[in-house]
């Protein structure tokens, strides 16, 4: 992941937004804010958000509805904020997809501590954990450990070699690989296959993950050099 962790804070109280934002910026995070549910969804759709702090009581669209809509396409971590302290409300919040839950009034230091804990669980050394990669707000989801890939929520099937090539590319975004480098990166130095078969694998991967395989947005050909992943 390039750059800072970007956090979206959603609350209908400007004072609360200002205080949380100040604490998070002090800790080195980039912070966006919103005061209603509809605006929060628009920001999420257009920005690479890495964590959301979400109040339940919002105008235009409730926090529960915002959470449900986000969970339909993304596994981005969500911390629920609410004045409700009842145990049932906490359970309901976690049931609809929240990763953590904190009631008002709360200590800003405690909130920052919980943010950091979730960031550590979800991201390692400022890079996504191998367990799950989410690209373009959920257009692609890749679970590396389980070798499951979803395109707009639908599971797609790659062969073992196709999967290895895709992982080699997407875990090094922007880096151009020659065919020979992709073979070594994907299969090891002792692989005795012909490196031109990479072209066939790339063609098949594009057919499965691109909206238009003839005009790819993820796996890009660099003339005379090889391929790179962008997205």
Automatic annotation (TrEMBL):
InterPro entries: OmpR/PhoB-type_DNA-bd, Sig_transdc_resp-reg_receiver, WalR-like. Keywords: DNA-binding, Phosphoprotein, Transcription, Transcription regulation. Residues 6-119 form the Response regulatory domain. The lineage of its organism: Bacteria, Bacillati, Bacillota, Clostridia, Eubacteriales. CDD domains: trans_reg_C. This is Response regulator transcription factor. Residues 132-231 bind DNA. PROSITE patterns: OMPR_PHOB, RESPONSE_REGULATORY. It comes from the Bacteria. The keyword Phosphoprotein applies. Residues 132-231 form the OmpR/PhoB-type domain. The modification 4-aspartylphosphate is found at residue 55. It comes from Clostridium frigoriphilum.
């Amino acid at each position: 992941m390039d750059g800072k962790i970007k956090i979206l804070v959603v609350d209908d109280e400007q004072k609360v937004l200002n205080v949380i934002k100040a604490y998070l910026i002090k800790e080195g995070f980039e912070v966006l804010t919103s005061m209603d549910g509809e605006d929060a969804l628009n920001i999420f759709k257009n920005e690479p958000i890495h964590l959301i702090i979400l109040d339940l009581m919002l105008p235009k669209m409730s926090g529960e509805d915002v959470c449900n809509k986000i969970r339909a396409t993304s596994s981005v971590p969500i911390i629920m904020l609410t004045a409700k302290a009842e145990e049932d409300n906490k359970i309901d919040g976690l049931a609809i997809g929240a990763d953590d839950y904190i009631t008002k009034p709360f200590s800003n230091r405690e909130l920052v501590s919980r943010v950091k804990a979730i960031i550590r669980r979800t991201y390692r050394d400022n890079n996504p954990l191998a367990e799950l990669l989410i690209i373009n707000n959920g257009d692609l989801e890749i679970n590396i450990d389980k070798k499951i890939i979803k395109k707009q929520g639908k599971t797609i099937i790659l062969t073992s070699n196709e999967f290895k090539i895709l992982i080699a590319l997407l875990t090094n975004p922007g880096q151009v690989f020659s065919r020979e480098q992709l073979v070594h990166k994907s299969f090891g130095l002792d692989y005795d296959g012909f490196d031109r078969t990479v072209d066939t694998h790339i063609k098949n991967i594009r057919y499965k993950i691109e909206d238009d395989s003839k005009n790819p947005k993820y796996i890009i050909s660099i003339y005379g050099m090889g391929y790179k992943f962008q997205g």
